[in-house]
């Protein structure tokens, strides 16, 4: 039986190197692909959400078998879009610290766009549980490495069309929020895509919003288990 590959997708401002600590903690031979998304580390400042989706599907299609697609933060929507586009190739979706947007919604229109890109807005919007486990040196390093996200990505429109995505099992990793909170949001209709998903498991991790940076070993164990 061909082993499933892990396809790792970082959220806003991150390139594929954000997963280095997680990948190094995975068992030898465990095939993981940390995707550097177009516009987030490849120098393509005019990249669009469609370009990122093309890169994700290329990683899925390149696998010898099925893929577990892992999305962090905003990229939870990308991971879910991959399940929609390849329901027969994506065996599971792991969502870390985020939720998939619905069809027709903007991908990540959260912060100001300046000169065609959305730069990291500083730490003020993330004070509290999001960044509680990042010390000052870690915050400075993160901000210095943060890649402005092209407007065509941030303001791209999520497209979903295949109802078979709801059959793909989902694991929701809960960092700065608890599984109980997530269940409440889903039950209240705040996350309509997950409310319709047939198999949703919730896993807690004691971290802020970026566990691949602050808890790579624990996150690697969770990914290995799913």
TrEMBL record:
Q: Which Gene3D superfamilies match?
A: alpha/beta hydrolase
The entry lists its GO molecular-function terms as: catalytic activity
What domain of life?
Answer: Bacteria
Query: What are the AB hydrolase-1 domain coordinates in residue numbering?
Result: 6-221
What name does UniProt use for this protein?
Pimeloyl-ACP methyl ester carboxylesterase
């Amino acid at each position: 039986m061909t082993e499933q590959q892990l396809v790792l997708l970082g959220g806003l401002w991150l390139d594929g190197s954000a997963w280095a600590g997680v990948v190094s903690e995975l068992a030898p031979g465990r095939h993981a692909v940390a995707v550097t998304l177009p516009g987030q580390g490849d120098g393509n400042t005019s990249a669009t959400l469609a370009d990122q989706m093309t890169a994700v599907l290329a990683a899925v299609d390149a696998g010898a078998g099925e893929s577990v697609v892992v999305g962090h933060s905003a990229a939870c929507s990308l991971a879910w879009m991959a399940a929609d586009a390849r329901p027969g190739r994506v065996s599971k979706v792991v969502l870390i610290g985020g939720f998939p947007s619905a069809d027709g919604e903007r991908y990540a229109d959260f912060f100001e766009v300046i000169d065609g890109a959305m730069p990291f807005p500083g730490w003020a919007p993330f004070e509290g549980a999001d960044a509680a486990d990042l010390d000052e040196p870690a915050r400075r390093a993160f901000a210095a490495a943060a890649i402005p996200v092209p407007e065509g990505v941030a303001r791209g429109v999520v497209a979903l069309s295949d109802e078979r995505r709801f059959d793909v099992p989902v694991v929701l990793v809960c960092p700065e929020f608890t599984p109980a909170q997530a269940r409440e949001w889903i039950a209240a209709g705040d996350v309509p895509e997950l409310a319709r998903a047939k198999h949703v498991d919730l896993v807690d991790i004691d971290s802020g919003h970026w566990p691949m940076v602050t808890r790579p070993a624990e996150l690697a164990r969770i990914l290995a288990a799913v």
